[in-house]
Sequence to fold (127 residues):
Amino acid sequence: MQDTPKAFDPDKRKFLSSIAHGSIFFSTTLLSVGVPIAVSFLSDDPVVKENAKESINFHFNVWFWAAIIGGVVGVLSFITLGLLGVVLFPIVAAGFLLHWGLTVWAISHCLGNPDQPFRYPFIFRLI
Fold:
């Protein structure tokens, strides 16, 4: 007798995957990574687990690049008495737009195609 694959609730899959990816909007709290970690532990759905893992990796990427860009802009602004900070502001703004845009893309993917995990482009994956 063959085992039949377990069916997962698509609405629950959409919700949990979207929550895992959407938690990045609160990334400045550093506690936001706890949401995809909790989702990963609480769900037995393999797609939800993959989305949670990808969200955790995205958190690490956002924090890494924010530290690099923020540090460089901060140091250069200090050295130039704030003048270069004004010039580099568009780079920081573009970083936020990229961060939010990728997150919106991930959430829309999870809602539109719940049976396939989302993969962020151009990130390094620690997990």
Notes: The first helix runs from residue 10 to 22. Helices lie at 10-22, 34-42, 46-79, 83-112.
